[in-house]
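EI: anyone free to look at a 361-residue chain?
SC: sure, send it
EI:
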Amino acid sequence: MGLVGTGWRSEFFRRVAEECPALISIGGVLAHTEGSAARVRDVWGSAATTSLSEFLRLGYDFVVVAVPRGVAGQLAAEIVRRVPVLLETPPAADVPELQRLFRSLGADSPLQVAEQYRFQPQHAARLAVVRSGRLGDPVSAAVSAAHDYHGISLLRAILGTGFREAEITARTFPERTMASYGFDGWATEPAERTSERTLAQLVFDDGTVGLYDFADEQYFSPVRSRHVSVRGVRGELTDDTVRWLESPTEPFRLELTRRQPGSDGDLEGPHLDRITLGAEVIYRNPFAGARLTDDELAIATVLARMSEFVRGGAGFYGLADASHDAYLGHLVHRAAREGHAVRTSRQPWSGSAGLIGGRDG
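SC: here you go
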C-alpha cells in the first residue's frame, strides 16, 4: 500500500505493517515537507517523497490517505482516479464539503473509509451478540465510547437504522477531572483539567433511540471509562454483561470474557486470542500473536478488508455511510449549539445501499 501523511494516525498504520508483514507493507509515503520525508526514510525505512506524481509512480494495490480533514477529501478525489483509496475519517470537514465530495465521487467509487471502531474486538463482540438475535430486535442503544462520527457509527451499526431520518436533541457542558494521560504521556503533577462533554438523543423514524455521551478525556483517562449498552425486545447488553430471555420463565446471564495470554507465567506471548460468551467464541483475533492494541487490531482489520475490496470483495464502509455518520455528528453539535431539536433532511447519499445500515450490516 501507499501512505499519504506522516502524522499521529499514520503511525498506527506503520505499527500494523511492522507487526503484520504478511498482511500489508508500505511501498511508499507521500509527505508534506522534505523534513518529514527524510524522517520517514531514516526511521521507517520506507521510500518517501513530497511529489504526488512521483509517489503514484511507485504503484500500489491501494493508497491510505491520512491527512487533515480540510485537504483529505480533495486529495483522495485526485488519487482515486488512479488507484483505490482508503480515506481516514471524516471524509470532509463540513456538511457542504461532504455533499460536494459525494456528488463528485458517488457511491460506486473505489474508495472506502477507515472507520475502525466497530472492528475493535470488544465492540465487534458486542455487535456479534446483537446480530445473533439473543436480544431480539434492538430498540435503543447508548454509546459512550468515541467522539462524533465514531460514536454515531457504532450507534447506527447496533440499531440498524441505515439512512433513516431522525430528530436530534443535544447539549454540551464542561466537565472537570484530574489530568492523567494524554497525547504527551502521563501528567507529572496533580492538576485539574476541563473537557467538553456532549449528551445527545437521536430518535429515528423507525422508533429506535440512540443515546450519545462523550467527553474528550474518555480516550485517555483511567478514571473516565467507556460504555456501551443495548436494549432489545428479549434482552439487554451492558458493556460485557449479556442478559436475555429464552422463555418468560428462563432468564440467562453471561459475560463476554477475553482470553489474553502472556500474564502470570503464561509463555504464549501477550496478545488477544479470543472473546467468548460462555462456551461460544464470539470474536476470534485474526492477527493472534501480533502485539497490537485493540485499536490497532481494528486498523489491521480495516486494512485486511480493504485488501479484499480491491480484489473484488465487498465494501465495508463506503463514502455514503461515512458521510452520513459525519453529517449526524455535525447535527449533534448544531443541536447543542442552538439549544433546540434539529431534524435530518435527505442528503445526496440517502438513497445509497448502506453497508452498516441493516441488522446484519
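EI: DSSP finds nine helices and 19 strands in the chain.
SC: 👍
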